Amino acid sequence: MAVYEGFSGTVAVAGGLIACKRFRVREEADKEEITGLADGKWKSYAGTLLGWTLEAEGPLDSGDTQFRGTTPNLRAGVTASFVGALSNSTKQFSGIVFLDSVEVEGNREGVFGYTISGTGNGALTYPAA
Questions:
Q1: In this structure, are residues 48 and 31 in contact, taking their beta carbons and an 8 Å threshold?
Q2: In the chain, what are the domains?
Q3: What radius of gyration, in Å, describes the C-alpha atoms of the chain?
Q4: Considering all CA atoms of the chain, what is the largest pairwise distance in Å, rounded to the nearest integer?
Q5: DSSP label at residue 127
Q6: Helix/strand/coil for 39
Q7: What is the reported pTM?
């Protein structure tokens, strides 16, 4: 498992971009036991499939239309494009993510924010070296 955290990025859906101010990409690998008789008492494994998940959060303002209407563009059950940079770097992660959950919250001061969680739909592109 690898976890990558960053501080700026975008989530794109039909209708526009949403800026994210914090994100976390978690990569995991499935494995299959391949222990043979010659391995003695120790188990052996081979990696099989890779997967990744995304958690992102950011602010909302009155101009963000992706969360409005009876069927908002940014909602659970849709796919979105994600691009995120490590810290203030130009090194970026990117990929297509299936949105598992979308949460919008506000407080008494009228400040609104969102949190999304999703599962990678295909490959995660890593930053160039």
A1: yes
A2: 2-30+48-120 (2.30.300.10)
A3: 18
A4: 66
A5: P
A6: helix
A7: 0.77
